[in-house]
Amino acid sequence: MIQNNLSTIMGKKRISIADVSRIAGVRYETIHRLYHDKNKGIEFATLDKLCWALQCTPSEIFEYIEDKK
Fold first, then answer.
1. pTM, entire model
2. Contact 18, 28 (CB under 8 A)
3. What topology is assigned to 2-64 in CATH?
């Protein structure tokens, strides 16, 4: 399972969806859907902009967690 940690990262940095949208140059709606884990995917260009804006890596935003079966 892939875990989305965007809301956690933004919370730790105390940065709003609007601020990330403005800094990264990504539409507010896109960040909002990612923040609330409502997306089915993400474009590499968007991920690149998010990593730049939040000064983090893709593996910090998205983390693989093995299913416990």
1. 0.88
2. yes
3. 434 Repressor (Amino-terminal Domain) (1.10.260)
Query: Is the separation of the CB atoms in 5 and 60 below 8 Å?
Result: yes
C-alpha 48/C-alpha 24 separation (Å) is 9
Q: Dig out the tokens for 9 from the structure.
A: 């990262």
Query: Structure tokens of 57?
Result: 């890596």
What stretches of 1-69 adopt beta strand conformation (E)?
Answer: 2-4, 62-64
| DSSP conformational letter for 66 | -
Per run of 10 residues, the mean pLDDT along the chain (length 69 residues) is 95 97 97 95 96 97 89
